[in-house]
What does this fold into?
Amino acid sequence: MTQPKDPLRYFRIEARELVDQLGRGVLELQGDAGPEPVAGLLRNAHTLKGAARVVRQAALADAAHALEEILVPYRDGAEPVPAAVVGDLLRLTDTMSELVAALQPLARPAAGEDQPVPEPGRGAAADVDDLLEAVDEAHARFAPLRRQAATVERARRTAESLAEQLRTGAAERGAGLAGGLASDLTALGRQLTETVEQVERELDDIRGRAERLRLVPAEQVLAALHRAVYDVASTEGKSVQFDSHGGDLRLDPHVLGQAGNALLHVVRNAVSHGVESEAERLAAGKPAQGRVSVDVRRRGRFAAFRCRDDGRGFDLEAVRRQAERRGLVADGAAADVRELMRLLMQGGISTSERVTGVSGRGIGLDAVRDVAERLGGEVSVHTEPGRGTDVELVVPLSLVSLSGLVVQAGGVLAALPLDAVRTCVLLPGVEAAAAAAAGALAHDGRVLPFLPLGRVLAAAGGGTGPNGRGVAVVLAAGDRPIAVGADRLLGTSTLVVRPLPDLAPASPVVGGVSIDAEGNPRIVLDPVGLADAAGSARTPGPPPAAPGEPARLDPILVVDDSLTTRMLERSILESAGYRVELAASAEEALERARHRRYALFLVDIDMPGLDGFAFVEQTRADPAQRDVPAILVSSRASAEDRRRGLDAGAGAYIVKSEFDQEELLGHIRALAGAPA
It folds into this structure.
């Protein structure tokens, strides 16, 4: 029996997203936020109101309208939104959340103080898993097609052989027929192969997108933690600012949900136990407003969740007294800070003098410890009396999405996390061999540890390519810069990284694996492991001199706010032999140009702040830069924009949708000359 169409199917998705945005936006109104947050809230509320009325959800539309009415007096940003009004707005967003939850096939329970952070995306993850299974089944169907393509190829070769034999005899007509058969089979085989490869590429793209959809942004948990901080601070009459970083990191929903539940206890205790009252903070010389921050970061094969507060820190003497009363340590016995922290994480010990809804039961760090044990991670606590406390939960990742720089070294393809890449440098064969032999590379006034990836990945050579040149990729491994050598760069890609199975241990330089377009595993390298392998403990010295080195063309400055575009253009130019420097904005490029000479500016147009047109105009007006040619690269393709670029002083204008590598290099050679 056909199921009736669900009239609220898409509205539920949109409403849930809008209500989440409203909840986060209201929390950002604390303090002098200005008019923009209020304007954003009004836009979202208006959108929700209209959508709710379309599907006849009057209660939700009325709640959105009520939120609008409260916010309108503050839309000009002339005065901050009072704390009492923020509370009213949050109660309205709670009501909206309950109304949206009631639209679900299985309604969620109403929000409560002890309700855990909901594990994000589990239903969606199950749907995506089904989709991935379907893609895998579709991939399996291609095996017979590939065998058929191979059969066609064998028949083609047979026909060619037959034609050749017939040509040596008298049967010219038969030779012509056999030749025609061979030609038809060649065309058929080529078409069949191209079709199979195209569909396989499309299916691989679908798989990659589906895998990324299975992951959820950490922002979903950070928003719940922000609300928890606000609620506890309001209950206890404290002023606390919440900061967060890493919300765009996408993680497996199971890991994220478990970590969110643990951090819920941590942030509540940070406000209740850690942050002092306003009077206490002022007396201690601190700002009246306390601060709680949560950072989410990827560390190779792990995700690190760190909660910091600037409160009073743990009362270690109170912990000692509690432990003595419970017989966990002998009276008067010495116990260091690590032992006291270990006891505190066992549960049942609390430094709070009263029991409230959020503290006093000795529950908190033990919940974090339980999550760490379930996920195979670890938790660490650092406290400094009078200064605050750090609690860090580190758990292994089952899946993580990241952007990667794909390189080839020693005949092996591998990926480096793009957020760790600082720059790439083309190395002539002599320099590459010298760096590999010395284990060090002179770069930007420093000597960096150098590790040839070919040696690590395939125990082959020293990382120079077939043409004798190589590429050094400079990485930031925490606070340790290193350089790794590759044969060549192959571009950037969005990767879904999986950990290696427990039964397949790998070198510490391997952070995980991803699946490439052909379904094969591709190594994803860990910058910290590479730094360890490169022997990063060596002491940098001055860069080696290069006496007698011939004068080379000045570097080209690539100016683009997109990291992916900067890296792609750098790869093209360095492969052609040019030296390249990068700038992420026109303002940064102007500052660089004040301190050194460039052979050419390769400039994007659409950038925040100063755009490419204005950058070219300013350099043309500068006597020191007016003779440096500039090329504009943009997605704008209109004749008016081309004319504006050339009028500004650009030597060439390249449209991204019509991008041709050889055309770009031809313009550069014509304007700046060929590399030495």
